[in-house]
Design a protein that fits this description.
Length: 146
Amino acid sequence: AWQTAGAPSKESWAFTALGVLGNDDTARKLTPLIRAWPGESQHKRATVGLDILAAIGSDIALMQLNGIAQKLKFKALQERAKEKIADIAESRELTVAELEDRLAPDLGLDDNGSLLLDFGPRQFTVSFDETLKPFVRDVSGSRLKD
């Protein structure tokens, strides 16, 4: 609503409040705007957007922030996002690599990288080999043919 109203600077509290009131959906909607704003001479607004993603702090918000840190054509904003990720990692007593690893989606896989498919009386386990090719085992542990 704030942006629809022309994003008046005297009402910028409505934007920064997203850091407190926002959720994963907010982060998903905000990220494309953050990526576009520097190209519209709105670098400061984009920087505040990074702060909002960091303040939301959920895994999804941090995944979005890390995505900006990894790839963005506006290098100054990308560097600022990298700084935010480094600050967050430090505050959690993690390295940047450890934080990035925790932000990677697990796709529903367990700690062994497998997924149990339960079809009532029939169960199968999907796993991945060393080349990340999926394979299936039945309940007895026998590997099924492709």
